[in-house]
Amino acid sequence: MSAPRVRVFFAAAAAVALGSGLAAACSGGGGDGGTGPGPGPTTGSVVAQVGAGATTVQGAQVAVSGGATAATGSNGQVRFDNLQPGAYTVTLSQLPAGFAMGSETAAKSATVTAGGTATVNWSVQTVGGGSTAATVRTSDASFTNGNVTIPAGGTVRFEYGTGFGHTVTPENPSGSWVEHDLGSAADNFSVTFATPGTYRFRCRPHSSNFTTGMVGVITVQ
Q: In degrees to the nearest 10, what's the CA dihedral of 10, 12, 13, 17?
């Protein structure tokens, strides 16, 4: 092979080798220098909204199956983040004084997807102006003023007085009328009763049924 042809051959081979090296460097050969997109979101969220007509309801207690419970803010909303994808039950467990469930269902279903936000809404009713019609207080192993009669739309406030380890356990829980612990003043709460009827309650640690021990009755007329 003549000298000029030898020089052309080696020049072409060097160009091919250089191009291959550049291609390998640009492609991140050997696993180094990759800058592809990171993994997508693995959890989702639930937003609960509670309103009464044009009024947003602040202080409503909302629970998500699995243990999380929080209160709605001034916008009537509460948000639960970092939930694993799947089916959840979202429950409006307590309303502030002046509101009632009406025809709404307390427990609703929500499906959480990765990176998504499921929304649950309640449209409740305003009742009775929210005025307190009666106050029931714990007293050692009994309820002070445990038997009360109130008008429909009236509110009963439950307060800690003395003793320890109390509950207010309704016989037939529904809507805002659900069991509460009442072991200190921080646990005080109110329930508005919109529908006439008889509502029996007890303290589980200090009674065996709804007729004996630490029990009470609310009669709504």
A: 140
Residues 165 and 99 in one domain: no
Give the pair of three-digit tokens for residue 83: 């939930």
The Cβ of residue 210 has, within 10 Å, a number of other Cβ atoms equal to: 16
What tokens were used for 107?
């427990």
Q: Which residue has the higher pLDDT, 174 or 199?
A: 199
**201 lies in which domain range?**
128-220
166 occurs within a structural domain = yes
Task: Report the C-alpha gap between 46 and 107 in whole angstroms.
Answer: 14
Integer Cα distance of 201 and 204 in angstroms? 9
Answer yes or no: is pLDDT of 79 > 50.
yes
CA-wise closest residue to 81 among 114, 37, 38: 114
